[in-house]
Amino acid sequence: MKTQKNPITAFFTSREGYLAIFVAILFVVLYFTTNLSGSMYIFLRDLAYLIAGGLALMMVIMLGEIDISSGTVLGLIGFVTGTTLKMGIPIPAVLLIAVCVGMLNSAIIAFVTVRFRVPSMIVSLAMVKLHVGVFPLLPDAGWVSNIPSSISDVGGARLFGVFPVILLFALVLLIFFCWFMKYTRFGRKVYAVGGNKESAKLAGINADKVTFLTFLTSGALLGVTAMMYWLPKTQVIPSGTIGMEMYFLPIAVVGGVSIMGGTGRPIGILVAGILIAMLQRACLLFGLGNQYVYLSYGLIVLIAVYATVSDIKIFKGKKTVGGAS
Questions:
Q1: The domain spanning residue 223 has which CATH number?
Q2: Cα separations (Å) of 204 from 24, 107, 116, 187, 216?
């Protein structure tokens, strides 16, 4: 009879576990060689929106799809939420508006993808161009300034002087999706459709419906991501999020989500999110330009993709029911 492996041992012998060990070592090195401790609050605040954005990309990539409009849509959502916040609308209501805008964007991508069988990468690229074209047409080119400090103080609220409250919400969101993807029927359907769409159809799963609902879920997460990103700020500059999909994509792929779909665990988003946040901080602390940030992102994505498709055993988990590996 096969004995069940200890959960802690199972984690640290998985792809996510090896990545966590590497991230822990890198964190210690940066902590003692730079002033990381002095910018710990900013590091943790950035981690919050990186986790939420990583989860959003995780959902669509698990289907074998992609949404490269996840960066520019944050700018559009930022304009809408910044404007409504200045109008005095309560933050919970603005959060709902942000989620609706994100879902609308994802619904358009999903509809064209499912209805007309156009690759989601092409549709989302069209949405990127649409967003970038709309930004200059917005009042003041979409810039929303002089947002009351009482609002940004809510976004920048801290626990124990250094722990951002929004990170607490991000961790709750992460825990929810760890449960949701493993223990709900819909979560298992996402894995099934991403693993083999034709087999999923033969098993009675409506693949198109699952795809559409998954994109809507991703859009809702992008709405939350936008709120986490913009709420601590006193102004919104929509063009400032152009290219931010290159933060979320590496988090999903490095976190263990297969670009072919069908595999991946939300816990990997946390570990990869910490890695990306550390790379951002490291480049700033060492006085390096953005080109080095994107260079490091590109390299780790290439390594992650190679590890996914290669025969390196330590990077390959055992696939189990519910997508856990």
A1: 1.10.3470
A2: 43, 23, 22, 15, 21
